[in-house]
């Protein structure tokens, strides 16, 4: 019997996003296969996590493509991006906690591609005058990632309604990123 690798990965993702410390035995059970079959697909937990990383990168890149980040106002593009990422947010929240994915020479270049595309969206918003220029595109990108992970965890734990996911993230992020003509807005001070 052939093992459906995509089914195994999605089963592992569903379990690990709820219980990040689940064992390989528990992952195998969730996928409806034996531990030996799981081990033939993934030599260990690290191999499984790396495969989940590849899935997460592919889903992020597909969400970015679907969000059309170069079209229309940048704020609207951010809203589209968050809405497109929402179905994948639990997996991304899990990956966000896997430090080994983001350290050292083995970091997947896919994350850098995603970072650059998201930062380019924020730069576009700054160039058009929509977004504040005192917050770097790199910081806005990291803030978006943190909000996506936090919202995914809050939804998973039942503290937030799933229907509020996109609204909560975009309103908080864009409310802070929006450029204001209000002279009372804090001005970035140069350090001495």
TrEMBL record:
<dbReference type="InterPro" id="IPR001647">
    <property type="entry name" value="HTH_TetR"/>
</dbReference>
<dbReference type="InterPro" id="IPR036271">
    <property type="entry name" value="Tet_transcr_reg_TetR-rel_C_sf"/>
</dbReference>
<feature type="domain" description="HTH tetR-type">
    <location>
        <begin position="2"/>
        <end position="60"/>
    </location>
</feature>
<protein>
    <submittedName>
        <fullName>TetR/AcrR family transcriptional regulator</fullName>
    </submittedName>
</protein>
<keyword id="KW-0238">DNA-binding</keyword>
<dbReference type="InterPro" id="IPR050109">
    <property type="entry name" value="HTH-type_TetR-like_transc_reg"/>
</dbReference>
<dbReference type="InterPro" id="IPR009057">
    <property type="entry name" value="Homeodomain-like_sf"/>
</dbReference>
<feature type="DNA-binding region" description="H-T-H motif">
    <location>
        <begin position="23"/>
        <end position="42"/>
    </location>
</feature>
<keyword id="KW-0805">Transcription regulation</keyword>
<dbReference type="Pfam" id="PF00440">
    <property type="entry name" value="TetR_N"/>
</dbReference>
<keyword id="KW-0804">Transcription</keyword>
